[in-house]
């Protein structure tokens, strides 16, 4: 007779306690309105400061690629961020809070500035505090932020795994292993596995469990918007690369998969703000299959400037009107 296998409980050691304590401490500190405004200022300065040493190289890249291509790339980047917002909205709605787009944008785009501060916890904390203005519990908005990141990561890996090996077939065999990851990633996105992984994560970081299972429709909707965002982000790279590439058509597929794979590498390096370093190395390595090393480096650098400008533009566009609007019921929770 087969014995029923028992699984060990989720880890409750020092690492898990430290993660939960750090999140609770950060949320307590962020409850101050002045601290939140300081957070925005630090994030803006950090984003701008990371680009400042490269301003001359960025200006030269603009001259080389052309202002028209840069403007078109910026529009694609903004559209990609808007698609990411919709993925977050779908996730939040699946958890029980259906926030209108205008209000969701105020929470999401301002909160996203936290990715320019070292440590991946800051966007989660910022969104949790900003969402309190709309009567959304901290644990629900922080769970939505965490789950959106994980689903976006899975969608990014799926996008990269289905494009990079095909685009580089016959040119670079190092990426063929990505094709083997496609069925694994697809299976991992099954709603039952998503709920099991989320429940385990919440236990590890000592957050309240879900009141109800995360619905399959929300998983599919969030994944759909996330894949759409990766396509748009890839187009933003392609618009910069096409004037320099030997084969603009092939460069499109490499741009889509390359940016997705590079972002996932940057995300996994949690100690670097906005994936600095790892993302650029991976992206340049892939873009050099379509253009020279100097041109690929120029595109990667200009891409970071475009994405940073898009983040700041959208955050400013939604935050400034909020200051002129009528005070919300929870005034201290709004920026």
From TrEMBL:
Domain of life the protein comes from: Bacteria
Compartmental location: Cell membrane
Keyword line: Cell membrane, Membrane, Transmembrane, Transmembrane helix
Keyword Chloroplast among UniProt keywords: no
Segments passing through the bilayer: 34-53, 65-85, 144-169, 175-198, 218-239, 251-271
Entry keyword annotation includes Electron transport: no
Protein topology in the membrane: Multi-pass membrane protein
Protein name in the entry: Lysylphosphatidylglycerol synthase transmembrane domain-containing protein
């Amino acid at each position: 007779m087969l014995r029923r296998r028992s699984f060990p409980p989720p880890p409750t050691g020092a690492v898990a306690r430290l993660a939960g304590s750090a999140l609770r401490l950060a949320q307590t500190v962020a409850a101050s309105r002045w601290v939140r405004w300081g957070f925005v200022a630090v994030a803006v300065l950090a984003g701008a400061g990371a680009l400042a040493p490269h301003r001359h190289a960025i200006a030269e890249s603009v001259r080389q690629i052309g202002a028209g291509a840069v403007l078109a790339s910026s529009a694609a980047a903004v559209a990609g961020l808007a698609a990411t917002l919709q993925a977050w909205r779908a996730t939040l709605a699946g958890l029980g809070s259906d926030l209108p787009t205008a209000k969701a944008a105020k929470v999401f785009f301002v909160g996203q500035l936290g990715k320019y501060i070292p440590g991946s916890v800051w966007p989660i904390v910022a969104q949790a505090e900003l969402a309190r203005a709309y009567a959304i519990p901290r644990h629900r908005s922080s769970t939505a932020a965490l789950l959106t990141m994980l689903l976006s990561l899975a969608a990014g890996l799926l996008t990269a795994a289905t494009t990079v090996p095909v685009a580089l077939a016959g040119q670079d065999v190092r990426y063929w292993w990505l094709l083997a990851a496609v069925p694994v990633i697809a299976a991992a996105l099954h709603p039952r596995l998503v709920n099991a992984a989320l429940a385990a994560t919440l236990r590890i970081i000592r957050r309240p469990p879900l009141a109800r299972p995360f619905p399959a429709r929300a998983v599919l909707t969030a994944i759909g918007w996330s894949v759409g965002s990766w396509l748009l982000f890839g187009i933003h790279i392609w618009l910069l690369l096409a004037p320099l590439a030997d084969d603009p058509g092939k460069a499109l597929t490499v741009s889509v998969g390359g940016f997705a794979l590079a972002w996932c590498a940057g995300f996994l390096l949690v100690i670097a703000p906005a994936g600095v370093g790892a993302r650029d190395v991976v992206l340049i390595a892939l873009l050099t299959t379509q253009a020279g090393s100097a041109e690929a480096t120029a595109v990667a650098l200009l891409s970071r400037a475009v994405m940073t400008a898009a983040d700041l533009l959208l955050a400013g566009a939604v935050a400034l009107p909020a200051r002129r609007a009528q005070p919300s019921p929870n005034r201290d929770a709004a920026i």
